[in-house]
């Protein structure tokens, strides 16, 4: 179906789909139905394609390859996000999720969301933050207490 038509609508929320199979998967988000189970860890998933991508987290399989820079990805959404980076001038790519940034400093800040690193520490109470703006916002709490 290339016409852009979306004849299959969800009776619960109105969202429409181009394929009945897509609607059936979507309906599971309302019912909580997750009929596909990972044989390795037991995680339940809503669709066969979600299971296929999840199973790759247990292996090193990376079937999505960028022909422009040779990066490879285990999940299609990371690959598509990466491909967008070639179009919009964002050359700094996260090796974990494929998200792209215009500057290396923005990438470093993003990587902290994966690593949990919190290099910015409040000298008054010791609480640590992932970014300088978060620390500066926190400091205002101490300033208000002291006034």
UniProtKB/TrEMBL annotation:
Pfam families: zf-C2H2 (PF00096), zf-C2H2_6 (PF13912). Residues 8-35, 36-63, 64-91, 92-119, 120-147 form the C2H2-type domain. Coiled coil: none annotated. Gene3D superfamilies: Classic Zinc Finger (3.30.160.60). GO terms for cellular component: nucleus. It is found in: Nucleus. Signal peptide: none annotated. InterPro entries: Ikaros_C2H2-ZF, Znf_C2H2_sf, Znf_C2H2_type. GO terms for molecular function: DNA-binding transcription factor activity; RNA polymerase II cis-regulatory region sequence-specific DNA binding; zinc ion binding. The keyword Transcription applies. GO terms for biological process: regulation of transcription by RNA polymerase II. Keywords: DNA-binding, Metal-binding, Nucleus, Repeat, Transcription, Transcription regulation, Zinc, Zinc-finger. The keyword Calcium does not apply. Belongs to the krueppel C2H2-type zinc-finger protein family. May be involved in transcriptional regulation. This is C2H2-type domain-containing protein. It comes from Peromyscus maniculatus bairdii.
């Amino acid at each position: 179906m290339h016409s852009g038509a979306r004849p299959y609508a969800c009776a619960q929320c109105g969202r429409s789909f181009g394929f009945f199979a897509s609607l059936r998967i979507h309906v599971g988000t309302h019912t909580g139905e997750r009929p596909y189970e990972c044989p390795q860890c037991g995680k339940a998933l809503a669709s066969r394609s979600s299971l296929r991508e999840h199973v790759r987290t247990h292996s090193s399989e990376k079937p999505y390859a960028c022909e422009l820079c040779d990066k490879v990805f285990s999940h299609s959404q990371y690959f598509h996000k990466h491909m967008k980076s070639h179009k919009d001038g964002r050359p700094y790519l996260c090796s974990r999720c494929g998200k792209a940034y215009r500057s290396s400093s923005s990438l470093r800040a993003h990587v902290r969301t994966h690593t949990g690193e919190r290099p910015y520490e409040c000298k008054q109470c010791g609480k640590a933050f992932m970014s300088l703006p978060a620390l500066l916002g926190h400091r205002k709490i101490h300033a208000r207490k002291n006034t």
